[in-house]
Amino acid sequence: MRKIKILSIIGTRPEVIKMAPVLQGMKKHADRITSILVSTAQHREMLDQILRVFDIKPDIDLNIMKPNQTLSHITTAALSGIERVIQETKPDIVLTQGDTTTVFAASLAAFYCRVPVGHVEAGLRSFDKYNPYPEEINRRLTDAVTDYFFAPTARARENLLREGIPDKNIYVTGNTVVDALQYALDRSFSFDQHPELKKIPLGGERLLLVTAHRRENWDAPLESICEALKELVDRFPDLHVVYPVHLNPAVRKTVHQVLNETPRVHLIEPVDYLTFVHLMKHSHLILTDSGGVQEEAPTLGRPVLVMRKVTERPEAYEAGVARIVGTGKEAIVKETSRLLTDERAYQKMARVGNPYGDGKAGTRIVDILLDQFKA
Questions:
Q1: Residues of the chain with pLDDT > 70: what percent?
Q2: In 3D, which of 167, 22, 156 has the Cα closest to residue 97?
Q3: Which one of 147, 153, 228, 307 has the minimum C-beta count within 10 Å?
Q4: Where are the beta strands (DSSP E) in 101-253?
């Protein structure tokens, strides 16, 4: 029986997290799958950090990242590099995950080379091309050239059907982030390994975990978010804010200008995935503009306030575990204060469960590929 050759592409930390369960699944079928992993290293430092957690080593590293890189640079460098790799390796399918610029470039390169594309996490839509930016257009363009659509939810499948994608090409698998989260929770961990976190009371006092870095939130929206955090710690003496600050200079400049020296606001360097999972587990409440956190927090029973105008992950707020609050200071303070003072409202959001899957998405995707390619 012929082995199927799968070329998987990663470029950022979220892609590694969500592709890891698929890569681990392919390892179990090494007699039937030749797996080749390519990294564009769109985000160098944060990518390398997460690769170590999952014990993943790319076979090919394009190393495209450069200081102050633009979206155009990422697109063209990834496109030409991945096209060259496809021509050299001649895969049966190119597998991408999510909605980064690496994903779009990889899918376009595969199309140019007439190689089928498999898209993990296909079908997510906010229906606003600038929110999130550039991810909404990246995923729409990726799905325009995709052949195998691995939709995480029934809602994502419905989005694809409305766009004219044949039902036979869509597979509802659950989201691989739930698989990755369960893997991380099963690993041994201690905050003693992290010098900055050892200084923060993670027991008796309430912890508010914050992530905010999206391009559409740079400058004034991010400043508003930071001002809201200042008011919250002033209003609630038992509240500690932990904010792992993204490495992007535009994010760091605003965050440190507003929040430096603010009591009980802990601005720390980005943490590895295991540490972040356990920070979520120990938090009382999460404020984020991240997509992945909206999918992870429900498993841990942590309410999420989403600091964006819209979300492409409506399942969380429809289930009641997340609420969209935008980036305005007043709204953030109001909704966070409500959950910090109203135990009934808090518990209503905390006890929902995860609408994104059962932790077996990676296995399902690998099984589908083996079946479709008769490997």
A1: 99
A2: 22
A3: 147
A4: 117-120, 148-151, 170-172, 206-211, 239-244
- Residue 179 catalytic? no
- The fold for domain 4-174+360-372 equals Rossmann fold (3.40.50)
**Is 55 an active-site residue?**
no
Sorted by sequence, the CB contacts under 8 Å of residue 329 that are 6+ apart come out as 224, 225, 227, 228, 231
- Look up 121 and say whether it is catalytic: yes
Q: What is the mean pLDDT of each run of 10 residues along the chain (375 residues)?
A: 93 94 97 97 80 92 88 95 98 97 98 98 96 95 98 97 98 97 91 80 84 93 97 96 93 96 94 92 94 90 94 90 96 98 94 86 98 87
Q: What are 339-355's pLDDT values in tens digits? A: 999 999 999 998 777 88
Architecture in CATH for domain 191-350: 3-Layer(aba) Sandwich (3.40)
Active-site residue among 15, 92, 99, 295?
99
Provide the whole-model pTM.
Answer: 0.90
For residue range 76-106, list pLDDT tens digits in order: 999 999 999 999 999 999 999 999 999 999 9
Under 8 Å between Cβ of 109 and 21: no
Question: Catalytic annotation on 246?
Answer: yes
Numbers of helices and strands, H then E, in the chain: 16, 13
Catalytic residue among 92, 121, 295, 296: 121
